[in-house]
Structures are given as structure tokens and as C-alpha cells.
Write a structure and sequence with these properties.
single chain; 208 residues; alpha/beta; five-stranded parallel beta sheet; binds adenosine-5'-diphosphate; binds thymidine-5'-diphosphate
Length: 208
């Protein structure tokens, strides 16, 4: 069976993931690769419905464990309906956020600890990313970029500064724990500089 690749992008809110994913998608497509973009939470009809429950500012009473399980549910559906079949067909799948977001935001940020990895092992099975690009900008810069975006902040973006600091520390710990999978990139640089570093890492992975 042909096997494609599964690449995920991670980082705090406003770290530049969507911007860099767009650039990478174009470069891979120009090189003739069959690329599929998706995002979390979302990417399927059911997962997008779960997304709207999670991010709704009206749901301020949501329990932290409920939140963690909803993210994992959205992920289980995305893996079985989209990611696994596409990788098996030989596509390069790029996902905006994946399991590391749950570890950073729910295990570290919300303080749920090891339970989050356990729940997610059921959600994803063997479907781990081949490479994860972690865009590192401190939370204050991310928050400033979001303010400039002029959109309403969702329930997670509205969480405290302290929460976003813990999320960032969680990402740095993950980078240390999984150096063979996670490529950390200092992302307080120009869009072009970051894109060049990402392309160098990805072209090595795909053997360009
Ligand atoms: P994310 O998907 O991680 O939330 P975005 O790609 O949407 O981040 O970027 C958030 C905002 O910051 C956007 O307005 C984007 O144009 C801007 N931005 C992205 N990368 C950079 C960068 N390297 N330097 C400055 N601004 C950036
Ligand atoms: P989104 O608008 O996609 O954020 P961004 O543009 O920053 O990627 O919203 C997703 C939010 O959900 C974001 O604040 C991170 C959070 N999140 C978690 O807390 N846990 C998770 O497992 C995932 C996938 C996202």
C-alpha cells in the first residue's frame, strides 16, 4: 500500500500557523505533491459542530474535562474520516493543530495532566504525525497579532494570560520530550524567514 505523510503545525494562538501552512501547501503543490489541508478542531461535518460548541463564548461554564473530551471526539472523527484514509492513499496531509494542542492547552494549560494523553490515545490510535512544526512565539506577541486581526476572540483565546503562559511552557516541554518528531522554530521573525526554515525541514523529510 502507498503511504503518504502526516504533518502537523502547532503553536500558540497567533503564532503564524495558518500563514505558514498556506505557503507550504503552495510549495508542495508546485512540486507536484497531492496535498490535503485540514484543521482542528474541525475538518469534518461532525467535528465542525463540536468545534462550535467548544469555542462558543456563551459556554463559559464548560468543565475542563468536558472540553478535553470534546477536542478528542472531534479528533477521533477527523482521523477516521479524513486523515487516515488520505495518508493511506499517499497524500501529504497537513493539519493545523493536533494532539500536541490538547497536551499543551488541556494537560498543561487547564492542569488535567496525564489523563489527556490517555483519552487521546483512544482518539487517534496509531495515527501520529510524521513531523510536527512548532512555531514558538511568546504568548504576548501572539496575543498582539490576534488583536491586530480585528476578529472577535473565541472562548479559548479569551482565557487568562496565565493560562497562555502555561500552554507555551507545555509546548516547550513537548519539544524536549519528542525531538525526533517536533521541529521547534523561533517564529518571532519575518514570514519569509520562517517559511524558508520550514521548507528546508520538509524537503529533507520528503527527500526533495
Ligand atoms: P495562527 O494560525 O497561528 O493563529 P495566523 O497565521 O493566523 O496565526 O497569524 C496571526 C496574525 O499574525 C495574522 O494577522 C498574520 O498575518 C500575522 N502573522 C503571521 N506570521 C507573522 C510573522 N512572522 N510576523 C508578523 N505577523 C505575522
Ligand atoms: P482556532 O481558531 O483554530 O485557533 P488558531 O487560529 O489559533 O489555531 O481555535 C482553536 C482553539 O482551540 C485555539 O485557541 C487552541 C484550542 N485548542 C485546544 O485547546 N485544544 C486542542 O486540542 C485544539 C486542537 C485546539
Amino acid at each position: 500500500m502507498k503511504k503518504g505523510l502526516f504533518i502537523t503545525f502547532e503553536g500558540g494562538d497567533g503564532s503564524g500557523k495558518s500563514t505558514q501552512i498556506g505557503i507550504l501547501r503552495d510549495r508542495l503543490a508546485e512540486s507536484g505533491y497531492d496535498v490535503l489541508l485540514t484543521r482542528e478542531p474541525g475538518g469534518t461535518k461532525i467535528s465542525e459542530k463540536i468545534r462550535s460548541i467548544i469555542l462558543d463564548k456563551e459556554n463559559s461554564e464548560m468543565d475542563d474535562m468536558t472540553e478535553a473530551m470534546l477536542y478528542a471526539s472531534a479528533r477521533a472523527q477527523l482521523v477516521s474520516e479524513v486523515i487516515r484514509p488520505a495518508v493511506e492513499e499517499g497524500k501529504i496531509v497537513i493539519c493545523d493543530r493536533f494532539i500536541d494542542s490538547s497536551i499543551a492547552y488541556q494537560a498543561y494549560g487547564r492542569g488535567l495532566g496525564d489523563a489527556v494523553a490517555v483519552i487521546n490515545s483512544y482518539a487517534i490510535g496509531e495515527c501520529m504525525p510524521d513531523m510536527t512544526v512548532l512555531l514558538k512565539v511568546n504568548p504576548e506577541i501572539g496575543s498582539r497579532r490576534i488583536s491586530e486581526r480585528n476578529e472577535d476572540r473565541d472562548r479559548i483565546e479569551l482565557a487568562s494570560e496565565q493560562f497562555h503562559k502555561k500552554v507555551y511552557e507545555g509546548y516547550l516541554d513537548l519539544e524536549k520530550r519528542y525531538p525526533e518528531r517536533i521541529v521547534g522554530i523561533e517564529a518571532d521573525r519575518t514570514i519569509e524567514e520562517i517559511a524558508a526554515v520550514i521548507w528546508e525541514k520538509i524537503s529533507r523529510l520528503i527527500g526533495e
